[in-house]
Write a structure and sequence with these properties.
alpha/beta, 8-stranded mixed sheet, 47% helix, globular
């Protein structure tokens, strides 16, 4: 019996989709640009093709595409139904099969027809379903009927949970009546359906198995060699089982033989499979054959498990690359006009099942296109899902040197593990060893070309998760759709223009490896957002021009021609910003090129398409009226150019459009110039972020009509992106084909205190020493109250005593402590708030002081999954306290806890400083991190009883009983983190891409929550979307929801809110592993459930008894980036909310159902349709454009902003129709008008609510007020999980906290001003974003504008500094103050307004040179 268990475990361990038989055909029309020689070879090869048909391939997207969402497959199982034409008296065996992909369709069809034509013993009725078709109710009902009267069910690669459940739902009840059930690698619950006589897998995955554990361990240890061993085992086992006498052995052998035939995949192999199962297990066939001799099956026809395959090779495959090149270099290359000595070489990874089933036209097409460009190919396959072994075997020569210049994976799957289980670390190490660009192209699996073309979303969500997200974690770039299936036959066909693009881009990347650095042309592209001269060089937290200086220096050192590039930041900036004829008074940037309209139309194939939105070229953007103008400056072979803006920022009408407009002519001309006139070998997009990746087009899986694809065309793109923004970086990777290089954001430091706030802390310190003194104590409390009012803290402390009437000497000591504690808690909240100081320069790692700031924040978090306690927890335990209790007391203003929290914080900082000081040099930098845990000195120190430096620091800070042993884990971790923090990989990372090397992948996110983000300078990726929300994220979310609902119930006489409007962000959910997503589910009383592979793709209702409160209705507004990255999670939310709406529960305990019933009646739709609560932009569009309007002043009134929000964000996601985002403005409005509370999350200290416009752009507070029947403004709340001490605050509290710690804080604005030009822009941006909150939520206190005016305008010296450093940005600042007053957001004196008006005129004159 152990043999059978071993066989079953082997099968599951492989989890393989394999392929085995070659095909040598190629349809000539697939080659669009082939060289004459190559074309002749492939045409000649048609004559000896063994394929069943020659396929004529054209671009199916030219055909009128069907309507609908394009996400359900429009193919029909009837196309796969084969009925015997004349069964006669033969018994008919009915086969029903379900497969993930369609390549088996033609072989199954041929096998059935061969049996019907040639077998005397049986006839076959055969019908097949593609897994995705089962989502369609009609198809599902048809599937049920077919299985009900089937003899045999076959399933393969059923790895989509909800569809696996559908298959199980239908087959399991009928399993006993079916003659046989054959399920090849799939989800465990589907595998358990297997039945071949007495052979079953009914216990698979349900009990602990020594064999399965052994297999799993060996797979992890041996990887590819393990898989190869398993494949050999599967070949050998049937021969062994043949000699065992029992029926069980015979049945097990039949199953193993069936699997081999299935893997063989050819019509001949599948014919043997059907005949074998029919004569041995199908009742009517067995009966009719009594007394007859059974047919002896042919052995499976199998190719080697790994090899090199070429469509025109005389041999089927080559098992060594030496044999392959003996033929390829000496025979094929001369015939094809390829010079083996100089040609670039492209390695290609193929899926074996396509070769075997003669379904290889898409592979042959790409091979021919690459060869037609004069390049060589090495196409390899594997029988398993671990390609690391074949890659090692075939992509190196005998001396161990790489023979390929680029690798393209055409399977679309992760390199190691395919769709089942992945080993990303192994994949990345394997690819880094090879060290060439690694592209993972995608064949359409669940859609026909027409469906994909008509779908605004583009690639099917399941494929995005399996074949885009997972390969990205390996380090793959460029998910280009290159092939799909033809609807009727299911055969794979290439898409001509995509194949051409893929070939062009692969060879451009190869070129970067081959071309000499001195000859390479590099286009550095910088951004200007909002479009204004004072904003050129926009990038989040990056000193752009100082970083460009560093890059230019590195390029020069590496042999690139940088001409006479200046070596100072200011000179580089000057050369780009200003026309040489004039200095500061030039309204124009430096003009690098003027493109006349004839040249533009000739070189830009899609130029005419832009006229619909922008009229004929040149237009008035990036134009001098006659020509299109490219701004920038060339230095040798390096061009520094300014990417044009979207173009509609200041146009109220365009901002209102529900869908974004095409790029304007100037934008198109810029990329035409880079590719076709400057002839760049690569583009380096500089900083977070530009507009290219947000241009209209599909979400994922671009077509040739999508503007990011048209603009970047064949240019390799490296994109420098902030490490804390993996979501938008992922959009750049997928939509503009960019390889990202992460850069560090400035380390977060404590905000500190200033002016009256600093004075308050000193007063509190005095009070702590004199609180028992009845003379001095009350006097100090009076001063504390007075100063708190002066600092406007009355807004944050509702029970702060009245300034006019209060006298502390008449109060109790307890009440004085209470007042002081609450004020202390507020100022400590401000002081300890984290803010990034200054801007980052590429290639400059943090100083020791900056490293300390980062490590202190890392050290405060518990990491239970790694058994690491945060330093504050260990210190608190030394005085008998739990750190969470201290946080609670601190938040409530309990004086003793506020004081203790401050002492714990200071002790933590001192301990981290002691660690870092050991490795700090005389320049205040950490060059080499000393290892304190392995050094002999540490051992001797322990023997002598001396304490570690960090322990001593904590003891000296007043905690003598701290447990040194408990600190070991966290300080070992901090030592590792210190090495990552100070590593300098950004410039090397950029150079690796420009040199055509493989850049190691790394997660993006918050380095404090996830230090694996460090070191920067790697190819940033998001995460596996099916992995969130994690269990840890669910637990944190439940805690935040509890605090949120407690706060709301306390303030509303115990009543819960009925509906909460929620905003979801892509980056936030990556950083927190889905905390805010889990909050949405928790509010509605829904629980996420993991499947048997650990993927989160199910939800279930939490029973009301367990929930203990009503289900809260939620209206979810997803950012466009969240929509792109997490469409499967939108599906989860929609399914969960609809489950709640359809639950038969009392309406007073289920507000989701209550509102859905009301809205169904109002809108005359079903309850299920009325329960749509997940909204976003239309596919390919981003944001509500509210931020754009406010940043550019292009808005008339708040009504316009609210209309933009409703128009652009009112597209509903519907799990019942997942192929589209449907405009549902009426439903959106109906749902919003029930909202009591608006809610957002702050998860990171690096990006707060005034740092970017995104937060207020998606805030619906005033929108809801306008829609509600009572016009009452909803309460606005924000959850702050930026520290271990998570809190829920009102929006106005959060705005005040942000203003005090950033805009009004000298530590912040002086840090920004120290960087010069960019720093002024950063200050102005925060002022403008603060006004944005006035416009969308009305939650900004007057004192914020008043104090800002005092800091930046009243102070003559400060005013002059701003004007001299960046006059354009200073003009914007003055404009913002005037606009805030003019729109009624700031009341101030006439004197202030007059001064601002005069100042505006002065600045204008200065800029214009008057």
């Amino acid at each position: 019996m152990a043999s059978f268990k071993f066989a079953a475990a082997a099968l599951l361990a492989l989890g393989t989709t394999s392929a085995f038989i070659p095909s040598n055909y190629f349809g000539p029309k697939a080659i669009q640009q082939s060289a004459v020689q190559t074309n002749a070879i492939y045409n000649a090869n048609n004559a000896r093709s063994r394929s069943s048909s020659l396929m004529v391939v054209s671009d199916p997207t030219e055909v009128g595409a069907p309507g609908g969402g394009g996400m359900f497959t429009a193919s029909n199982a009837e196309n796969r139904r084969i009925l015997p034409e004349d069964a006669g008296d033969r018994p008919t065996m009915k086969i029903v099969y379900v497969v993930l992909e369609s390549q088996y369709q033609s072989s199954m069809t041929a096998a059935a027809k061969r049996i019907n034509a040639g077998s005397d013993n049986m006839a076959v009725e055969c019908v097949g379903y593609l897994l995705e078709e089962l989502r369609n109710e009609e198809a599902f009902e048809s599937f049920k009927k077919d299985v009900a009267d089937a003899n045999v069910f076959i399933g393969s690669l059923i790895f989509v949970q909800e569809l696996a459940e559908k298959v199980t739902e239908v087959v399991e009840p009928l399993r006993d009546q079916l003659d046989a059930v054959l399920v090849f690698p799939s989800m465990p619950e589907v595998m358990r359906l297997n039945k071949v006589g007495s052979f079953t897998m009914k216990n698979l995955g349900q009990s602990k198995s020594v064999v399965a554990d052994f297999m799993k361990k060996k797979k992890q240890e041996d990887g590819s060699s393990f898989e190869e061993g398993m494949l050999k085992l599967l070949r050998t086992l049937p021969k062994v089982l043949k000699f065992l006498p029992s029926d069980k052995a015979a049945d097990a052998r039949t199953f193993m033989m069936s699997f081999q035939y299935w893997l063989g995949g050819s019509p001949e192999n599948l014919e043997s499979l059907l005949l074998m199962v029919g004569q041995d297990y199908v009742g009517p066939v067995k009966e009719s054959m009594q007394g007859k001799e059974k047919v002896v099956m042919e052995e499976p026809v199998l190719l080697p498990d790994k090899a090199i395959w070429h469509p025109v090779a005389p041999e089927i495959v080559f098992e060594t690359n030496q044999k392959y090149f003996d033929w390829y270099n000496t025979q094929h290359c001369p015939d094809a006009g390829i010079d083996p000595a100089t040609a670039p070489t492209v390695g290609i990874i193929l899926q074996k099942s396509h070769i075997n089933t003669k379904d290889d036209t898409h592979y042959v097409s790409l091979i021919a296109e690459i060869e037609s460009r004069g390049a060589r190919v090495v196409p390899i396959y594997s029988g398993g899902l671990d390609f690391s072994g074949p890659l090692d075997d075939y992509f190196y020569d005998a001396s161990g040197k790489s023979i390929v210049d680029t690798v393209i994976n055409l399977t679309g799957f992760a390199l190691v593990g395919g769709p089942a289980s992945q080993d990303h670390k192994k994949a990345a190490q394997c690819l880094k060893k090879l060290d060439v660009p690694y592209m993972c192209a995608v064949p359409l699996v669940f859609q026909s070309f027409e469906e994909w073309q008509s779908s605004e979303l583009g690639l099917h969500p399941i494929q995005v998760a399996l074949q885009v997200s997972l390969p990205e974690i390996d380090g793959a770039i460029e998910p280009i759709i290159y092939a799909g299936r033809e609807g009727a036959t299911g055969r794979s066909v290439p898409l001509a223009d995509r194949v051409n693009l893929l070939a062009d881009r692969a060879l451009k990347w190869s070129n970067l490896r081959i071309k000499k650095n001195a000859d390479k042309k590099i286009a550095v592209t910088i951004f200007s957002f909002p479009p204004d001269k004072g904003n050129v060089g926009t990038a989040a937290y990056l000193d752009v021009f100082d970083s460009i200086k560093a890059v230019m220096k590195q390029l020069k050192a590496d042999g690139y021609d940088v001409g006479d590039a200046p070596d100072s930041k200011e000179a580089i900036m000057e050369s780009v910003l200003n026309d040489p004829e004039a200095r500061i008074n030039s309204p124009e940037l430096n003009v690098a090129y003027r493109m006349n309209t004839d040249e533009y139309y000739e070189l830009t194939p899609y130029a005419k398409d832009l006229e619909e939105n922008w009229g004929p070229a040149p237009g008035n953007l990036n134009s001098d009226g006659q020509n299109l103008v490219v701004y920038g400056k060339q230095f040798g072979n390096v061009f520094i150019g300014v990417q044009p803006s979207f173009g509609y920022e200041g146009d109220p009408m365009r901002l209102l459009f529900a869908k974004s407009a095409s790029p304007h002519h100037g934008f198109a001309a810029y990329y035409t110039y880079l590719e076709k006139i400057f002839e760049a070998d690569a583009v380096l997009h500089f900083g977070t972020h530009g507009s290219l990746e947000f241009m209209p087009g599909k979400q994922v899986g671009m077509s040739g009509q999508c503007y990011p694809d048209r603009l970047i065309n064949s240019l390799p793109s490296a994109y420098l992106y902030a490490a804390n923004n993996p979501s938008e970086a992922t959009i750049a990777k997928r939509r503009s084909y960019s390889a990202t290089v992460s850069y560090l954001t400035p380390p977060a430091e404590n905000a500190g205190l200033y002016k009256g706030l600093k004075e308050l802390k000193e007063l509190i310190s005095s009070y702590q020493g004199l609180r028992e003194n009845e003379g001095r104590g009350p006097a100090i409390v009076n001063s504390i109250v007075s100063t708190a009012w002066t600092c406007n803290l009355d807004k944050d402390i509702p029970d702060l005593p009245d300034l006019e009437t209060y006298d502390a000497k008449n109060d109790t000591k307890e009440r004085r402590d209470d007042i002081t504690g609450k004020v202390y808690a507020q100022i400590m909240q401000i002081e300890s708030r984290l803010l990034p100081c200054g801007l980052h320069t590429v290639g400059v790692p943090p100083s020791a002081e900056e490293a300390i700031a980062t490590l202190v924040n890392i050290a405060q978090l518990d990491r239970p999954e790694d058994k690491i306690e945060g330093i504050p927890r260990v210190i608190a335990a030394s005085v008998g306290r739990d750190i969470n209790e201290i946080y609670r007391g601190n938040n409530q203003g309990v004086l003793v806890d506020v004081e203790l929290n401050e002492r714990v914080t200071q002790a933590s900082r001192a301990a981290v400083r002691a660690l870092v000081n050991q490795s700090t040099d005389s320049n205040g930098r950490v060059k080499e991190v000393k290892n304190f845990f392995d050094e002999a000195a540490g051992i001797f120190g322990g023997l002598l009883g001396s304490k570690k430096p960090w322990t001593k620091a904590i003891i000296d800070a007043g905690f003598p009983d701290v447990d040194e042993e408990r600190l070991e884990a966290v300080f070992g971790y901090l030592e590792f983190c210190l090495k990552q923090v100070v590593a300098n990989n950004e410039l090397p990372g950029i150079m690796e891409l420009l040199n055509g090397q493989f850049l190691m992948p790394a997660p993006g996110g918050d380095p404090i929550r996830n230090p694996d983000v460090l070191p920067t300078g790697r190819n940033m990726h998001a995460l596996d979307p099916s992995s969130i929300p994690t269990q840890a994220a669910v637990e944190v979310a439940e805690d935040v929801v509890r605090k949120l609902l407690e706060k709301l119930a306390d303030e509303n006489d115990g009543a819960y809110p009925e509906s909460i409007a929620f905003t979801l962000w892509g980056t936030d959910n990556i950083k927190t592993y889905g905390e805010s997503l889990a909050q949405v589910l928790a509010l509605a009383g829904v629980r996420p459930v993991s499947d048997s592979l650990g993927r989160v793709n199910k939800v279930e209702l939490i029973p009301l008894e367990e929930l203990g409160r009503p289900r809260i209705d939620v209206v979810v507004s997803c950012s466009g980036v969240f929509r792109d990255l997490f469409i499967n999670q939108m599906n989860l939310m929609d399914r969960g909310i609809k489950m709640a709406a359809e639950a038969d529960e009392p309406l007073e305990m289920n507000f989701v159902r209550k509102h859905a019933i009301e809205q169904a009646e109002e809108l005359q739709v079903s309850i299920r349709e009325a329960a749509c609560r997940v909204f976003s932009n239309s596919a390919g569009s981003y944001s509500a454009n509210v931020g754009l309007a406010i940043e550019n002043g292009g808005w008339e009134d708040e009504g316009q902003l609210q209309e933009q929000f409703l128009t652009r964000k009112g597209f509903a996601f519907n799990a019942d129709k997942p192929g589209m985002m449907e405009q549902q403005a009426d439903l959106f409005k109906s749902a919003l008008k029930t909202v009591d509370v608006t809610f957002q999350n702050l998860d990171s200290s690096e990006i707060s609510i005034t740092d970017v416009s995104h937060y207020y752009d998606s805030d619906p507070t005033k929108v809801v007020a306008g829609l509600r029947d009572d016009k009452k403004k909803p309460m606005s709340l924000m959850a702050d999980t930026t520290t271990a001490n998570a809190q829920v605050r009102t929006l106005s509290e959060t705005v005040r906290l942000d203003a005090r710690t950033k805009l009004l804080n000298p530590k912040f604005y002086e840090g920004m001003l120290s960087t010069g030009y960019e720093g002024v822009r950063e200050i102005q941006k925060r002022l403008r974003n603060t006004m944005g909150w006035s416009a969308t939520a009305g939650e900004v206190d007057n004192f914020v504008f008043e104090d800002a005016n005092e800091v930046f305008i009243d102070d003559a010296e400060m005013q002059q500094r701003l004007l001299d450093t960046n006059p354009n940005a200073f003009r914007d600042m003055v404009t913002t103050f005037l606009e805030a007053n003019g729109r009624g957001y700031w009341e101030t004196s006439e004197e202030n307004i007059e001064r601002l008006q005069e100042l505006y005129a002065e600045v204008e004159d200065r800029i214009e040179g008057v």
